[in-house]
Automatic annotation (TrEMBL):
Protein name in UniProt: DUF4232 domain-containing protein
Organism: Streptomyces eurythermus
Ranges of residues in domain DUF4232: 103-219
Matching Pfam families: DUF4232
Keywords from the named record: Signal
Signal peptide positions (record): 1-25
Keyword field contains Hydrolase: no
Composition bias, Low complexity: 37-77, 84-102
Region described as Disordered: 24-105
Length: 238
């Protein structure tokens, strides 16, 4: 066996490397530019992966043709218990209470009941009777005034006796009454006059009713000439 010296082996390796480099230099494209068949190698010796371009259709959401409302959905308010909403959308009027509305002057008749005297006092019931075909109510004090034949008022308006008003329900034909009281002018010495009538105004009304006066002279001025009136109560008197 022939052993080649180590320097000779190194020279042969250098010659082979130079020949390989010359062969690579001769493999051009004729234009002086290098031809690359793939991406450059990374520092780790592996090819870098190709970077993908994202598709616009994949990253952007699809547009909607209908606008999206941000306002919350409205719900209908529930009807109050015991009521039914009409189909037309209007609210039905509440039912008239069993007692009815107040009595008007045109629905009443005024009269003066029998005198019930005592200890120098004259006590007359002033009666209001329902002459209408419906039930109505009276509450509080009526108005009253003595008048002469020509309609002029005699004396001052009656004073109200303290009392607790109550609502009096009067059906057709029923009545309510208030007490009219004054001192007998012959006993008190007050100046007196004989009225032709007593005008009675129902509570909360403006128009009075005319009632015949059967009681004779009444005090109109001077000492103890006051006339008093009580609140209305059910019935026609004591």
């Amino acid at each position: 066996m022939v052993h080649t010296p180590r320097p000779a082996r190194r020279g042969a390796l250098l010659v082979s490397t130079a020949a390989a480099l010359g062969l690579l230099a001769g493999c051009g494209n004729g234009s002086g530019e290098d031809v690359h068949s793939g991406p450059p190698a990374s520092s780790a010796g592996t090819a870098a992966p190709a970077r993908e371009t994202p598709s616009p259709s994949a990253s952007a959401p699809a547009a909607s043709s209908a606008p999206v409302s941000s306002a919350p959905a409205r719900t209908a308010s529930p009807a109050p218990p015991g009521t039914t909403a009409p189909s037309g959308g209007t609210t039905a009027a509440p039912a008239t209470p069993a007692g009815g509305s107040r009595c008007h002057t045109s629905e009443l008749r005024a009269s003066v009941g029998r005198n019930d005297p005592g200890a120098g006092q004259e006590n007359f019931p002033v009666v209001l009777t329902n002459t209408s075909g419906r039930t109505c109510t009276l509450r509080g004090y009526p108005g009253a005034a003595f008048v002469n034949a020509s309609g002029g008022q005699l004396g001052a308006d009656p004073r109200r006796t303290p009392g607790t008003p109550v609502t009096v329900t009067v059906r057709p034909g029923q009545s309510a009454w208030a007490g009219l009281t004054f001192s007998n002018p012959e006993v008190s010495g007050a100046r007196s006059a004989a009225p032709a009538a007593l005008l009675v105004t129902p509570p909360d009304e403006r128009d009075p009713l005319r009632a015949a006066w059967p009681g004779g002279p009444v005090p109109v001025s001077g000492t103890a000439s006051s006339v008093r009136l009580t609140v209305l109560s059910p019935g026609t008197g004591p």
